[in-house]
Amino acid sequence: MSLHNTTLPAFEPDLFNTEAYARLHASRFFGSEVRSEYFRAGHNMPTGVFHAMQVLPGLFISPGRGPYGGFDISSELDEAELAVFIAKTEARLRQCGAHRVELVLPPFCYAPHRGPRTLALLCRLGYCVIRQELNQALNVGEKCFAVQGNYANRKRLNKANRAGILVRRLNGEECREGYEAIHENRIKKDRSLSMSWQDVQQMQAAFPDRVFHFGAEQHGRIIAAAICMAVNRRTLYVFAWGERVGAESVSPVTSIAAHLFEFAQRGGFTLLDLGTSSVDGIVNPGLLRFKESLGATTSLKLSLGKALA
Fold first, then answer.
1. Closest CA to 10 of 36, 49, 45, 41
2. Contact assessment for residue 52 and residue 101, using Cβ atoms and an 8 Å cutoff
3. Who wins on pLDDT, 26 or 273?
4. Please, where are the H alpha helices in the chain?
5. Does any domain span residue 15?
6. Higher model confidence: residue 212 or residue 64?
7. 3-state class (DSSP) for residue 57
8. Mean pLDDT of 190-207
9. CB 183 within 8 A of CB 244
């Protein structure tokens, strides 16, 4: 069943803030966890959620695992209500022995108006920025993918088309082959994937309608792949992508980007999140240029911390 064919409540937490996602990863952590929900007077459905895991004695982080967490709230909540929600959550954390809390906010492109206001409130309440990353995303509208990017992007896309690159959804055992292509790419760059193949399988089993695998084929062989997640009704997140060693000359990831953009258009998504182009605040210039050549815009993704003792 498509995420967009499902009747959803007015407020639904993003994927990484759901109870099901927290349960999936709970066994990896120190033990204690805190889940806080905000209910408006007279309402029996929450309009805000927060989830954090204890990773060291007294240290809770949100998310325990995942690209972001923090205070996930309805757009209807005003600043005063959010302040009350934060205060109640901090009280719960202290009751569970928390001396410090750290949280990763979603990129500002997820909520261009609400995100900065939430950050301003958190800073007034004593939170401090402890890390900043640069995140890139494509706004998904009616324009075709080629129009979004620059000349270099169109040139790469035409070259891939001439090389016979075909992109499609992967299924069954093909998904493992796609993961291995991405893993090979990470090894070449001396980097690692944050999820093992077993982790990906567990995510797929828990969220079969929200995890998608794509592959780029040449002569019947998968030479590049992408794993994506529908984090909400608006946003399709590229968890990981990459090509096999030796496939760089035909830039199959550009073809995958074009396919993902079209998939997002058909699915009713309005944002294609390409992820960060920095690690611990250090920017990867080549990766940043590549994503910008696709037509992506850059926004901040911040991590905050606060002492609760």
1. 45
2. yes
3. 273
4. 19-25, 79-95, 114-124, 145-148, 151-162, 174-188, 197-206, 252-267, 285-293
5. yes
6. 212
7. coil
8. 94
9. no
17 CB neighbour count, 10 Å cutoff:
25
Q: Is residue 292 part of a domain?
A: no
Based on the fold, state whether residues 123 and 158 are members of the same structural domain: no
Residue 213 belongs to domain with CATH number: 3.40.630.30
- β-strands 166-169, 72-73: how paired? unpaired
Contact 131, 280 (CB under 8 A): yes
What does pLDDT average to over the chain?
93
Residue 191 pairs with which residues in a beta bridge? none
Beta carbons of 85 and 118 less than 8 angstroms apart: no
Using alpha carbons, select from 97, 96, 52, 43 the residue that is nearest to residue 71. 52
Q: What pLDDT score does 94 carry?
A: 96
List the domain range (segments joined by +) for residue 58.
3-132+301-307
- Measured between its terminal Cα atoms, the distance across the chain in Å is 46
Rounded distance between C-alpha atoms, residue 94 and residue 72, angstroms? 20
Q: What is the CA radius of gyration of the chain?
A: 20
**From residue 240, how far is each of 50, 115, 178, 212, 268 by CA, in Å?**
25, 24, 11, 11, 21
According to DSSP, residue 171 is labeled -
pLDDT tens string 101-130: 999 999 999 999 999 999 999 999 999 999
Domain tally for the chain? 2
The pLDDT assigned to 5 comes to 41
Report how far residue 226's alpha carbon sits from residue 215's, in angstroms, rounded to the nearest whole number.
6
